[in-house]
Amino acid sequence: MKTPVFVLHTDNEEKIKAVHAFLKALNIAFEMSYLKYDPDFVTKIYQSEKEIKEGKGVEMDKKEIRKLLESDE
């Protein structure tokens, strides 16, 4: 028998507790760990999302992306 593995993504503490209680009630063994991200990285991601919403992003087609990637080699 193959053992299924579920990966859940949420930062909502209420949902985490609900899933934990659900699995415990069904007597399902589980492991839980937390991913840690560099706070500076997270800040940069949020800043980038904000800039995109403000129209400060740059659109590129596939050819432009390929050209950009090839120039780094």
Overall description:
The protein is mainly α. The model has no long low-confidence stretch (mean pLDDT 90). The N and C termini lie far apart (46 Å). Helices cover 52% and strands 0% of the residues. The longest helix is centred in the middle third of the chain and has 15 residues, at 39-53. It has one domain (13-71).
Short description:
By secondary structure, the protein is an all-alpha fold.
Helix and strand layout, with pairings?
Blueprint: H1 13-25, H2 39-53, H3 62-71
Features:
single chain
| Total tally of structural domains | 1
- Total strand segments: 0
Helix content: 40-55%
Global morphology: elongated
The main pleated sheet reads as: none
Order of helices and strands: HHH
Estimate the mean pLDDT confidence. Answer: 90
Instruction: Note the total helix count.
Output: 3
User: Which band does the percent of strand residues land in?
Assistant: under 5%
| Class computed from helices, strands and strand pairing | mainly alpha
